[in-house]
Each structure stands twice: as C-alpha cells, then as structure tokens.
Amino acid sequence: MIAAGLLRAATISAALILTAGASLAQGSGNDRISAKLVAAELKAMGFNAEVGADDDGAPKVSTVVDEFKWVIFFYNCDLSGDIAERPCNSVQYFSGYTLDKPVPPHTLNKWNMDNRYARGYVYESKEGGSSARIELDALFAGTGGDAARTFRVHFDTMKRLTADFRTAIGYKKK
Predict the structure, then answer these.
(1) pTM of the prediction?
(2) Beta partners for residue 71, in sequence order
(3) CB-based contact 90:139 (threshold 8 Å)
(4) Is 74 exposed, middle or buried (0-12, 13-18, 19+ CB in 10 A)?
(5) Which helix (H) or strand (E) holds 98?
(6) Rg for the chain (alpha carbons), in Å?
(7) 3 state SS of 11
C-alpha cells in the first residue's frame, strides 16, 4: 500500500513536471510576441512599421532606424490566423550594409569578441557584391516577461550595437 502511494505520487509529480515544461516551451501567451505588437511598439516610438511575410511565410516587420533599413524576423510562430497576430517565441533583429570592399575578417572577429548579444558577419551575394550584416536574437516565450517591454529593451540594444558596428566596419552612408 505504501509502494502504491509512492508510485501514485511519483506519477503525479512527473505529470506536473512534463506539463510545466511543455507550458514553458510554448510560452505563457503573454510573453510571446507578434508582428502586430512589434509594429505598435515601433509606431509608439516614432518609427514606421510594415508587417509582411518572409520567404517561408513567417511574419516579419520592416522599419527604418537611423536612416538604415531593419527587418525583424519572427520564429516558432503559431501557423494559423492573421500573420500579424500570430504569437511567436522569438525574433531576430537584422540590418545589413552594402560595402565597396569586404571587411577584413580580423575586424569582424574583434567586433564579435568585444560585443555581446549581437553578431556581425560578411555576406557575399551571387552577383559578387559584399555586405556586412548584424543580427540580434531575442527569446520571448517562457521568460514570463512583458513582450512589449522586452521588445523595447532588445530594440535599444540593437540600435546601440548597429551604430557601433557601422563605425567598426568603416561604413559611410552614400
């Protein structure tokens, strides 16, 4: 009888742990992010915002920050409903800069070593053009945080880091 009680308690505990883990993986709903929320936050901060879909059909928001194009890509989203309202687990802030000549690898390596949160890299197009790109990934689901507030914190970090990145790679606006 004691063994049966212990087995029942262990089974209940295991079920609770699995349920909590699945809930955390999906996010609570309040901490997930949508293109609609991002567009509203950008507009509240004085930026334009255009909601669209990326090549895979996932939401994206395009904007201009400090006169440079940015795209915010959304990942691990619900697949149904209006694209702007789909709750997503994470985003990636992205900005790229066309260059006259490639950035030396040691310049990017140093920048990546000296800066947390974002990463910079060089992209070579099929046509032979070169661009330097910067990305910052941000997780929302499972954090328990307010998605709008979390978005703004990461946005501010990306804004600061893109300015540093442009300086590091010697980018001059044409």
Answers:
(1) 0.81
(2) 62, 94
(3) yes
(4) buried
(5) strand 88-99
(6) 21
(7) helix
- Asked if 99 and 133 touch (Cβ cutoff 8 Å), the reply is no
Question: What's the one-letter identity of residue 123?
Answer: Y
Task: Name residue 129's amino acid.
Answer: G
> 70 and 17 share a domain?
no
Task: Give 84-117 pLDDT, tens digit per residue.
Answer: 999 999 999 999 999 888 899 999 999 999 999 9
Which CATH number characterizes residue 43's domain? 3.30.1460.10
**Scanning the structure block, which residue is given the tokens 């790229």?**
96
What is the distance between the alpha carbons of residues 39 and 45, in angstroms, rounded to a whole number? 10
User: Judging by DSSP bridges, how do beta strands 50-53 and 88-99 pair with one another?
Assistant: unpaired
Please indicate, yes or no, if residue 125 is contained in any of the structural domains. yes
